[in-house]
Structure formats: structure tokens, C-alpha cells
Amino acid sequence: MGNITGAQVEQIIKLYAGNNSILETAKAIGVSTVKVRKVLITEGLWESDTSIKIGEFLKQGLTTEEIANTLYMSVKNICHMSVAYMEARSCRRKRYVQTNIGTE
Q1: 81 C-beta neighbours (distance < 10 Å), count
Q2: Each residue of 71-100: pLDDT tens digit?
Q3: 79: how many CB neighbours lie within 10 A of its CB?
Q4: Positive or negative, the Cα torsion across 37, 40, 43, 44?
Q5: What is the largest CA-CA distance in the chain?
Q6: Does residue 25 or residue 44 have the better pLDDT?
């Protein structure tokens, strides 16, 4: 399966809100738990201790290599989690602007 559609994102959000389970949500929609988790992180609905630490390190200006070494993780995993973190920040900022300032 390729990209997640907008309808699937809405399904993920709705199902997860009802069952609070990434695994059950993924099974119900037929996508991986990684994709469900990424959608939830992007929407600001889920975060792990590790994703919080990565976000803090990114704010401090550490490189992915430095973060990987500090957390004893692969650079690839840090990159995936960094992308989700950055997407989540971007989405929350966009929603804030639309809600509080309006769209142009």
C-alpha cells in the first residue's frame, strides 16, 4: 500500500479515538501500525517518550547522527521519527494559523 488517503486519515483518527489501540486501528483499516502511528503523531494525537526526546534534541540543534548516538538508535529510525515530528509541528502550526488568524 502506498500513501494514506484523506479518508483513511479520518478513519484512523475516528477508530483510534474509539479503541485507543494502534494495533486494532491498523488491523481494521488494513495498514501498518507504523502508518497509524505516523498519522497520529502528525495529527498531534500520540507521542512516545522517544519521540518527545527526539523533538527536544531537534530543538537543541542536534544532528540526526548525534541523536542516534545519544539514544542508541539507528540514524534511519531517528530520520523517520524526525520527519513525523516536523510534520506534526507543521500541521499544528497550520491549524493554529487557520483557527486564530484565518485563511487567506
Answers
A1: 25
A2: 999 988 887 776 666 655 544 444 544 445
A3: 13
A4: negative
A5: 44
A6: 25
- What gap in Å lies between CA 93 and CA 4, rounded to an integer? 21
12 contact partners, CB below 8 Å, separation of at least 6:
4, 25, 29, 31, 36, 39, 40
**Closest-CA residue to 88 (of 29, 38, 50):** 38
CA angle (99 as vertex; 95, 103 as ends), nearest 5: 85
CA 99 vs. chain centroid, Å, equals 21
Q: Judge contact between 67 and 81, C-beta under 8 A.
A: no
- Name the nearest CA neighbour of 44 among 33, 55, 59, 32: 55
- Number of helices and strands (H, E) in the chain? 6, 0
State if pTM tops 0.70: no
Cβ neighbours of residue 76 closer than 8 Å, sequence gap 6 or more? none
